[in-house]
Design brief:
Distance between the termini: 23 Å
Radius of gyration: 18 Å
Structural class: alpha+beta
Order of helices and strands: HHEHEEHEEHH
Oligomer: single chain
Largest sheet: 3 strands, mixed
């Protein structure tokens, strides 16, 4: 069983590498244009938009593969004390460009004496990134996103809320990737994509 799990994890790594490899080439070329060729303002905007889209695509590729591996319980999760303030600082830096471009405010509500939480640092950062990314998709210019963390007796409660478009009252199963895929095939344009199903599976596997 351990050998089989290792083979599946290895296949996941290869899949992520192969899917990201063309994007890595595009990103490096775009960064060269931006940093070395000193493009005029209109071209610079196009390059920055392309870089944001390509970097987001890299995250989505990883989240898609990790979601499958986590769901099948073949991805090793190592829990450790995680400083939430440091993690939120990393989160802000990863979405700062998109926030500025869309005119959206991101606020962190964190207790001053917030103790470290027991979690997988990388996985928790990916969860928060996926949730904020989902909020960004449904927020208009001038919207606000809040990430609040409250310490509890047996852990912490982290809430991501936004002032963007609300979830439709009759739209259920937002965490079920298979139902979202079925809805897409039937022509739905209200599905939330990869972020929420990944976050749901990742949280369950860390409990």
């Amino acid at each position: 069983l351990c050998v089989a799990m290792a083979v599946v994890r290895g296949a996941g790594d290869v899949l992520i590498h192969d899917l990201k490899s063309p994007l890595a080439s595009i990103i490096s070329n775009m960064e060269f244009i931006r940093e070395v060729m000193n493009p005029e303002p209109t071209l610079l905007t196009i390059v920055n938009n392309a870089l944001s889209a390509e970097q987001r695509q890299c995250f989505l590729i990883e989240d898609t593969v990790y979601c499958m591996l986590l769901k099948d319980q073949v991805w090793p999760i190592e829990l450790e004390p995680v400083n939430l303030q440091e993690l939120l600082d990393l989160l802000r830096s990863s979405v700062e460009e998109m926030l500025e471009k869309k005119g959206i405010t991101l606020t962190f509500l964190l207790e001053d004496d917030m103790p470290p939480v027991l979690a997988s640092r990388d996985l928790l950062l990916r969860i928060l990134n996926a949730l904020v990314d989902n909020s960004l998709k449904f927020c208009m210019r001038g919207s606000q996103i809040e990430v609040e963390a409250v310490a509890g007796a047996d852990g912490a409660r982290i809430v991501v809320r936004d002032t963007g478009r609300a979830i439709l009252p009759n739209y259920t199963n937002i965490f079920d990737l298979s139902l979202q895929s079925e809805a897409r095939r039937e022509g739905s344009r209200t599905t939330v994509g990869m972020g929420l199903p990944f976050a749901h599976v990742a949280v369950l596997q860390m409990r």
